[in-house]
From TrEMBL:
Keywords: Oxidoreductase, Pyridoxal phosphate. This is Probable glycine dehydrogenase (decarboxylating) subunit 2. Gene3D superfamilies: 6.20.440.10, Aspartate Aminotransferase, domain 1 (3.90.1150.10), Type I PLP-dependent aspartate aminotransferase-like (Major domain) (3.40.640.10). GO terms for biological process: glycine decarboxylation via glycine cleavage system. The glycine cleavage system is composed of four proteins: P, T, L and H. In this organism, the P 'protein' is a heterodimer of two subunits. The gene is gcvPB.
Length: 496
């Protein structure tokens, strides 16, 4: 490999006069741009030949890591393998060439997909109906909270402006509540990592709009007191919201609707194998119980004797002032299509195996590694669990060091320093899609790193060594990021 092409910026490979393209002859005549459209000086762009450009960006693309490259044990994120059949279906011209403004009679197939997955997700979660409109998990959270707020406002119960959030919650929970204009009230966890019901009771009152929960929670533990929690929230007039980020281990085992949840958002990129990361595209459908159906966002797909129709605010007789609009159309259709393909591929029989296998994988890793890594809550977990760094603290090797060293062995690091309940948190989620061979390889490397930490701690503290960029100063990078390339032009440093 040419290290110069691999390690340098494209600007550093630039040579005046080199070109990687040729434009066709002008067939449209000469047109003068008005001055306000022109730059004051020419853009300083790199000048490279085609081979240099192709090799440079191809080499850099190989630095990307994803579920197609290797094991990706990010806790709380469920980096599940995305089956190729999902991509094949989503790339069919019958779906990609559609336009949302086509006459409804020409898109009956697409509407049937949307209707069917609405019903499938409702059945899987135990909810009465589902909207597919939200574009991401956090967008779904916001939508769910807006539904809760609309429900209380429509009933004239405007005093309910507080939302209870556990101290172990995902960071998006309080953020979404704040964006929705609601006040956040924190409820503490017990030493077992579960919601403290005794701490919850004094928080309840006629000002509580609802409570947000993840079950299993962020520590990967099933909230066994959920029947009591649901009863308390409903008795005080509030609604119970389910953060669907951790739904994966419940498939085939339990349904949030049966636990007493009134609203749920789903991360299709976590539980239903659609692409994850890179800023999108995403999808965060929201399910609701029977009494909240009138508050679902429009548009919404329904089935009639004559076919599938799109309900919109203009053509519905329901309580229109409560209807919210959170996206232009019917969500990210091709992402939804991928999830629908996944559900159909597994079928009713095999989708029930997802949760048990995800739980088995997590407990297997936990039990194999707990002699080398500190397990603060030693109990049966669900899809994920949390270590509190290495068991031997005398080495001075931190969770960050372990994460960096994993890169040298070709593994993506798990989630680190989250949740905040533990100082050296290391959150691992293997999902159900990984083979035992892959999991055993990860376990072996984790044992090797623990041994290195005991015998040669400085080796681990200096990692990584086999990556294009070594250990960076995270604080300096955060406080003083270099966002532009600076080069000497006529002996003067200028930004490009």
């Amino acid at each position: 490999m040419n290290n110069k092409l691999y390690g340098n910026l494209i600007f550093e490979l630039s040579h005046s006069g080199r070109r990687a393209y040729s434009l066709p002859e002008n067939q449209f005549g000469h047109h003068t741009l008005p001055d306000f459209c022109k730059r004051e000086k020419d853009a300083e762009l790199p000048e490279c030949d085609e081979m240099t450009v192709v090799r440079h960006y191809t080499n850099h693309s190989e630095n990307n890591f994803g579920v197609d490259n290797g094991f990706y044990p990010l806790g709380s994120c469920t980096m599940k393998y995305n089956p190729v059949i999902n991509e094949e279906v989503a790339s069919m011209a019958s779906f990609t060439d559609l336009h949302p403004h086509q006459p409804i009679e020409t898109v009956q197939g697409a509407l049937e997909v949307e209707y069917n997955i609405q019903r499938a997700l409702a059945s899987i979660t135990g909810m009465a109906d589902v909207t597919l409109n939200p574009y991401a998990g956090a967008h779904g959270e916001l939508t769910g909270l807006m539904l809760i707020a609309s429900y209380h406002q429509q009933r004239g119960d405007k005093k309910r402006t507080k939302v209870i959030v556990p101290d172990s919650a995902h960071g998006t929970n309080p953020a979404s509540a704040a964006v929705c204009g609601l006040e956040i009230v924190e409820v503490k966890s017990t030493s077992d990592g579960l919601v403290d019901v005794n701490d919850l009771r004094p928080l309840l009152g006629d000002d509580i709009a609802g409570m947000m929960m993840t079950n299993p929670n962020t520590l990967g533990l099933f909230e066994k007191d959920i029947p009591e929690i649901a009863k308390l929230i409903h008795e005080c007039g509030g609604l119970l919201y389910y953060d669907g980020a951790n739904l994966n281990p419940l498939l085939g085992a339990a349904r949030p609707g049966d636990m007493g949840f009134d609203v749920i958002h789903l991360n299709l990129h976590k539980t239903f194998s659609t692409p994850h990361g890179g800023g999108g595209p995403g999808a965060g459908p929201v399910g609701v119980c029977e009494k909240l159906i009138p508050f679902l966002p429009k548009p919404h797909v329904s089935k009639t004797k004559d076919g599938f129709v799109i309900e919109d605010s203009e053509n519905t007789e329901e309580f229109s002032t409560a209807n919210i609009r959170i996206s232009g159309y019917l969500g990210n259709f091709l992402v939804i299509l991928r999830a629908y393909t996944y559900i159909l591929t597994l079928g009713k029989k095999h989708i029930k195996e997802v949760g048990p296998f995800a739980t088995l994988s997590a407990n297997y890793i936990k039990e194999c590694l707990k002699d080398d890594y500190e397990l603060p809550i030693d109990t049966l977990c669900k899809h994920e669990f949390v270590f509190d760094g290495l068991k031997d603290k005398s080495t001075g090797v931190t969770t960050m060091d372990v994460a960096k060293r994993l890169l040298d062995y070709g593994y993506h690091a798990p989630t680190i320093y989250f949740p905040l309940l533990f100082h050296e948190a290391m959150m691992i989620e293997p999902t159900e899609t990984e083979s035992k061979d892959t999991i055993d390889g990860f376990i072996e490397v984790m044992h090797i790193i623990a041994k290195e930490a005991r015998e040669n701690p400085e080796l681990v503290k200096g990692a990584p060594y086999n990556t294009p960029i070594g250990r960076v100063d995270d604080v300096l990078a955060a406080k003083h990021p270099i966002l532009t390339y600076r080069q000497l032009i006529n002996d003067t440093e200028e930004s490009v």
